[in-house]
Write a structure and sequence with these properties.
Blueprint (H helix, E strand, L loop, with lengths): L3 H13 L12 H11 L20 E7 L3 E9 L5 E10 L3 H16 L1 H5 L3
Antiparallel strand pairs: 1-2, 2-3
Length: 121
């Protein structure tokens, strides 16, 4: 987790790299996901509307980020001012996508054998 000194260092590095024409904000991955999905267009529903009321003020939501080795979750809440507040965070090691993939492969090898699985590689 980045504190204010680390964020300030990244802002200064961006400006030194010539990225200083617009304000720079350092945000958590979960906040970036909120911003992206909030603006993502959706297809129209049967009633003709295209609005999902998930990101309304006061709403809470969970962002789950499954990496290769880890899974990170963040519970966020949209304040009445529209600001995103982090309510809870949790991370787990050795349970991400690659870990699940490897466990699944091992499961099949245990059933059909290594030689049979090698024929598909």
């Amino acid at each position: 987790m980045w504190g204010d000194p680390e964020k300030q260092f990244m802002i200064q590095a961006a400006k030194k790299a010539g990225i200083d024409k617009t304000p720079i904000a350092i945000v958590l991955e979960s906040e970036a996901a909120y911003i992206f999905y909030k603006e993502l267009p959706v297809e129209k529903f049967e009633d003709g509307s295209n609005k999902i009321d998930v990101f309304s003020l006061g709403q809470r939501y969970l962002v789950l980020n499954a990496e290769d080795e880890t899974i990170d979750t963040t519970v966020l809440k949209v304040s009445p001012e529209g600001k995103v507040n982090v309510l809870r965070r949790a991370s787990w090691e050795n349970c991400g996508g690659a870990v699940v993939d490897n466990a699944f492969k091992k499961f099949f090898i245990d059933i059909v054998g290594e030689k049979f699985m090698d024929s598909f590689r």
